[in-house]
Design brief:
Elements lengths: L3 E5 L2 E5 L4 E6 L6 H11 L4 E2 L3 E2 L14 E2 L2 H9 L3 E7 L2 E6 H9 L3 E5 L2 H10 L4 E6 L3 H11 L4 H16 L6 E4 L3 H13 L1
Parallel strand pairs: 3-9, 3-10, 4-9, 5-6, 10-11
Antiparallel strand pairs: 1-2, 5-8, 7-8
Bound molecules: adenosine-5'-triphosphate and the ligand Nc1nc2c(ncn2[C@@H]2O[C@H](COP(=O)(O)O)[C@@H](O)[C@H]2O)c(=O)[nH]1.
Protein backbone atom coordinates (compact mmCIF):
# COMPACT_ATOMS: atom_id res chain seq x y z
CA UNK A 1 0.00 0.00 0.00
CA UNK A 2 1.29 3.45 -0.87
CA UNK A 3 1.83 5.56 2.23
CA UNK A 4 2.20 9.28 2.75
CA UNK A 5 4.73 10.28 5.41
CA UNK A 6 3.37 12.81 7.85
CA UNK A 7 6.14 14.82 9.40
CA UNK A 8 5.01 16.47 12.57
CA UNK A 9 7.51 18.07 14.87
CA UNK A 10 10.12 15.55 15.92
CA UNK A 11 8.15 12.45 14.90
CA UNK A 12 7.41 10.92 11.51
CA UNK A 13 4.26 8.85 11.05
CA UNK A 14 2.56 7.18 8.16
CA UNK A 15 -1.01 7.33 6.99
CA UNK A 16 -3.17 6.36 4.01
CA UNK A 17 -2.79 8.74 1.07
CA UNK A 18 -6.28 10.21 0.88
CA UNK A 19 -6.23 12.45 3.98
CA UNK A 20 -4.87 15.94 3.61
CA UNK A 21 -4.14 19.02 5.63
CA UNK A 22 -5.48 22.36 4.35
CA UNK A 23 -4.28 25.62 5.89
CA UNK A 24 -6.15 28.91 5.63
CA UNK A 25 -4.03 31.84 6.72
CA UNK A 26 -3.88 35.63 6.31
CA UNK A 27 -4.00 38.75 8.45
CA UNK A 28 -6.44 39.20 11.30
CA UNK A 29 -9.78 40.57 10.10
CA UNK A 30 -9.38 39.53 6.47
CA UNK A 31 -12.35 37.16 6.78
CA UNK A 32 -10.72 33.75 7.28
CA UNK A 33 -13.14 32.69 9.99
CA UNK A 34 -16.22 33.83 8.07
CA UNK A 35 -15.01 32.05 4.92
CA UNK A 36 -14.22 28.93 6.94
CA UNK A 37 -17.71 28.82 8.49
CA UNK A 38 -19.31 29.18 5.05
CA UNK A 39 -17.03 26.47 3.65
CA UNK A 40 -17.95 24.09 6.49
CA UNK A 41 -21.67 24.73 5.91
CA UNK A 42 -21.23 23.79 2.24
CA UNK A 43 -18.92 20.84 2.96
CA UNK A 44 -19.79 19.16 6.25
CA UNK A 45 -17.42 16.33 5.33
CA UNK A 46 -14.45 18.59 6.10
CA UNK A 47 -12.94 18.25 9.57
CA UNK A 48 -12.29 21.65 11.20
CA UNK A 49 -9.60 21.60 13.85
CA UNK A 50 -10.70 23.58 16.92
CA UNK A 51 -7.66 25.45 18.23
CA UNK A 52 -6.50 26.00 21.77
CA UNK A 53 -5.94 29.59 22.95
CA UNK A 54 -5.13 31.66 26.01
CA UNK A 55 -7.25 34.56 24.66
CA UNK A 56 -10.41 35.41 26.61
CA UNK A 57 -13.65 34.32 24.92
CA UNK A 58 -15.44 36.99 22.88
CA UNK A 59 -19.17 37.47 23.25
CA UNK A 60 -20.90 34.40 21.82
CA UNK A 61 -17.79 32.21 21.60
CA UNK A 62 -18.28 28.72 22.99
CA UNK A 63 -15.57 26.68 24.68
CA UNK A 64 -14.85 23.57 22.61
CA UNK A 65 -16.53 24.99 19.51
CA UNK A 66 -14.88 28.35 18.80
CA UNK A 67 -11.71 27.47 20.71
CA UNK A 68 -10.60 25.56 23.77
CA UNK A 69 -9.92 28.43 26.17
CA UNK A 70 -7.15 27.65 28.66
CA UNK A 71 -4.66 29.49 30.92
CA UNK A 72 -1.12 30.43 29.87
CA UNK A 73 0.30 27.98 32.41
CA UNK A 74 -1.73 25.13 31.02
CA UNK A 75 -0.80 26.09 27.44
CA UNK A 76 2.91 26.10 28.29
CA UNK A 77 2.50 22.70 29.91
CA UNK A 78 0.89 21.34 26.72
CA UNK A 79 3.73 22.80 24.62
CA UNK A 80 6.28 21.05 26.85
CA UNK A 81 4.35 17.78 26.43
CA UNK A 82 4.48 18.12 22.62
CA UNK A 83 0.69 18.28 22.34
CA UNK A 84 0.63 20.81 19.50
CA UNK A 85 1.14 20.30 15.79
CA UNK A 86 2.05 23.99 15.64
CA UNK A 87 1.65 26.91 17.97
CA UNK A 88 2.44 30.62 18.07
CA UNK A 89 2.04 33.75 20.14
CA UNK A 90 -0.17 36.29 18.41
CA UNK A 91 -1.09 39.76 19.71
CA UNK A 92 -0.31 38.78 23.29
CA UNK A 93 -1.97 35.36 23.37
CA UNK A 94 -0.98 31.80 22.58
CA UNK A 95 -2.75 29.76 19.89
CA UNK A 96 -2.14 26.12 18.98
CA UNK A 97 -3.44 23.18 16.94
CA UNK A 98 -3.99 19.96 18.89
CA UNK A 99 -1.71 17.30 17.43
CA UNK A 100 -3.29 13.87 17.89
CA UNK A 101 -6.85 14.62 16.89
CA UNK A 102 -5.67 16.21 13.64
CA UNK A 103 -3.32 13.33 12.80
CA UNK A 104 -6.09 10.81 13.58
CA UNK A 105 -8.46 12.53 11.14
CA UNK A 106 -5.83 12.70 8.39
CA UNK A 107 -5.07 9.01 8.93
CA UNK A 108 -8.75 8.21 8.59
CA UNK A 109 -8.76 9.94 5.19
CA UNK A 110 -10.32 13.29 6.07
CA UNK A 111 -9.58 16.70 4.60
CA UNK A 112 -8.58 18.56 7.76
CA UNK A 113 -8.83 22.36 7.66
CA UNK A 114 -6.88 24.74 9.91
CA UNK A 115 -7.47 28.47 10.22
CA UNK A 116 -4.26 29.84 11.69
CA UNK A 117 -1.93 32.86 11.68
CA UNK A 118 1.31 33.25 9.73
CA UNK A 119 3.91 31.72 12.07
CA UNK A 120 1.84 28.60 12.61
CA UNK A 121 1.17 28.32 8.88
CA UNK A 122 4.92 28.48 8.26
CA UNK A 123 5.48 25.69 10.79
CA UNK A 124 2.91 23.53 9.02
CA UNK A 125 4.52 24.21 5.63
CA UNK A 126 7.86 23.09 7.06
CA UNK A 127 6.57 19.91 8.74
CA UNK A 128 3.82 18.94 6.25
CA UNK A 129 5.17 19.67 2.75
CA UNK A 130 2.08 18.00 1.28
CA UNK A 131 -0.33 20.39 3.01
CA UNK A 132 -2.24 22.81 0.77
CA UNK A 133 -1.78 26.36 2.05
CA UNK A 134 -4.09 29.21 1.08
CA UNK A 135 -3.33 32.83 1.93
CA UNK A 136 -6.32 35.17 2.13
CA UNK A 137 -5.59 38.79 1.19
CA UNK A 138 -7.72 41.89 1.85
CA UNK A 139 -8.71 44.09 -1.13
CA UNK A 140 -6.82 46.95 0.60
CA UNK A 141 -5.29 47.83 3.96
CA UNK A 142 -7.99 50.43 4.83
CA UNK A 143 -10.64 47.77 4.15
CA UNK A 144 -8.81 45.36 6.47
CA UNK A 145 -8.90 47.99 9.22
CA UNK A 146 -12.63 48.60 8.55
CA UNK A 147 -13.30 44.88 8.96
CA UNK A 148 -11.38 44.53 12.21
CA UNK A 149 -13.11 47.61 13.61
CA UNK A 150 -16.48 46.62 12.18
CA UNK A 151 -16.28 43.33 14.04
CA UNK A 152 -16.30 45.47 17.21
CA UNK A 153 -14.95 42.66 19.38
CA UNK A 154 -11.41 43.73 20.16
CA UNK A 155 -10.02 46.49 22.38
CA UNK A 156 -8.28 49.47 20.74
CA UNK A 157 -4.97 48.05 21.95
CA UNK A 158 -5.69 44.62 20.42
CA UNK A 159 -6.74 46.25 17.13
CA UNK A 160 -3.52 48.27 17.01
CA UNK A 161 -1.39 45.15 17.64
CA UNK A 162 -3.23 43.20 14.94
CA UNK A 163 -2.87 46.00 12.38
CA UNK A 164 0.84 46.45 13.15
CA UNK A 165 1.37 42.78 12.41
CA UNK A 166 -0.90 42.68 9.35
CA UNK A 167 1.47 44.52 6.99
CA UNK A 168 4.29 42.01 7.53
CA UNK A 169 1.82 39.15 7.21
CA UNK A 170 0.55 40.41 3.86
CA UNK A 171 4.13 40.62 2.57
CA UNK A 172 4.47 36.87 3.25
CA UNK A 173 1.54 35.91 1.01
CA UNK A 174 3.78 34.51 -1.76
CA UNK A 175 5.23 31.87 0.57
CA UNK A 176 1.96 29.97 0.29
CA UNK A 177 0.54 27.76 -2.48
CA UNK A 178 -2.46 29.90 -3.39
CA UNK A 179 -3.40 33.56 -2.82
CA UNK A 180 -7.06 34.58 -2.78
CA UNK A 181 -8.33 38.14 -2.39
CA UNK A 182 -11.41 38.29 -0.17
CA UNK A 183 -13.13 41.25 -1.82
CA UNK A 184 -16.44 39.80 -2.99
CA UNK A 185 -17.22 37.12 -0.41
CA UNK A 186 -18.91 34.61 -2.75
CA UNK A 187 -16.07 34.86 -5.26
CA UNK A 188 -13.48 34.22 -2.56
CA UNK A 189 -15.47 31.26 -1.24
CA UNK A 190 -15.78 29.79 -4.74
CA UNK A 191 -12.03 30.24 -5.23
CA UNK A 192 -11.31 28.30 -2.03
CA UNK A 193 -13.67 25.54 -3.12
CA UNK A 194 -11.91 25.37 -6.51
CA UNK A 195 -8.53 25.06 -4.76
CA UNK A 196 -9.81 22.22 -2.56
CA UNK A 197 -11.98 20.26 -4.95
CA UNK A 198 -10.74 21.31 -8.39
N1 LIG B 1 -15.74 39.73 1.64
C1 LIG B 1 -16.05 40.45 2.72
N2 LIG B 1 -16.54 41.69 2.56
C2 LIG B 1 -16.87 42.45 3.65
N3 LIG B 1 -16.75 42.05 4.94
C3 LIG B 1 -16.25 40.81 5.15
C4 LIG B 1 -15.89 39.96 4.06
N4 LIG B 1 -15.43 38.79 4.58
C5 LIG B 1 -15.51 38.91 5.92
N5 LIG B 1 -16.01 40.12 6.27
C6 LIG B 1 -16.23 40.65 7.63
O1 LIG B 1 -14.95 41.01 8.15
C7 LIG B 1 -14.95 40.85 9.57
C8 LIG B 1 -13.74 40.02 9.97
O2 LIG B 1 -13.94 38.69 9.51
P1 LIG B 1 -13.37 37.44 10.31
O3 LIG B 1 -13.66 37.56 11.77
O4 LIG B 1 -13.89 36.25 9.60
O5 LIG B 1 -11.81 37.63 10.05
P2 LIG B 1 -10.60 36.69 10.46
O6 LIG B 1 -9.63 36.74 9.35
O7 LIG B 1 -11.11 35.35 10.85
O8 LIG B 1 -10.03 37.42 11.73
P3 LIG B 1 -9.14 36.78 12.91
O9 LIG B 1 -7.95 36.21 12.24
O10 LIG B 1 -8.82 37.95 13.77
O11 LIG B 1 -9.96 35.75 13.61
C9 LIG B 1 -16.28 40.21 9.95
O12 LIG B 1 -17.15 41.22 10.44
C10 LIG B 1 -16.79 39.64 8.61
O13 LIG B 1 -18.20 39.60 8.56
N1 LIG C 1 -0.81 29.57 14.90
C1 LIG C 1 -2.12 29.49 15.18
N2 LIG C 1 -2.93 30.54 14.95
C2 LIG C 1 -4.23 30.41 15.22
C3 LIG C 1 -4.76 29.23 15.75
N3 LIG C 1 -6.09 29.41 15.95
C4 LIG C 1 -6.38 30.65 15.52
N4 LIG C 1 -5.26 31.26 15.09
C5 LIG C 1 -5.11 32.62 14.53
O1 LIG C 1 -4.90 33.57 15.56
C6 LIG C 1 -5.26 34.84 15.08
C7 LIG C 1 -6.12 35.56 16.08
O2 LIG C 1 -7.33 34.87 16.26
P1 LIG C 1 -8.56 35.56 17.04
O3 LIG C 1 -9.60 34.49 17.13
O4 LIG C 1 -8.03 35.99 18.36
O5 LIG C 1 -8.99 36.74 16.20
C8 LIG C 1 -6.01 34.61 13.77
O6 LIG C 1 -5.13 34.91 12.69
C9 LIG C 1 -6.32 33.13 13.80
O7 LIG C 1 -6.39 32.57 12.50
C10 LIG C 1 -3.87 28.13 15.98
O8 LIG C 1 -4.25 27.04 16.43
N5 LIG C 1 -2.58 28.31 15.68
Amino acid sequence: MQVLPIQSGATTKECPPQGRLIVLTGPSGVGKGTLMQALLRRHPELYYSVSVTTRSPRLGEINGKSYYFISRNKFEQLVAQGEFLEWAEFAGNYYGTPREVVLDHIRSGKLVVLEIELEGARQIRATFPSALSIFILPPSFPELENRIRGRAQDSEDAIARRLRRAQAEIEAADEFDIQIVNDDFETALNDIEAALFG
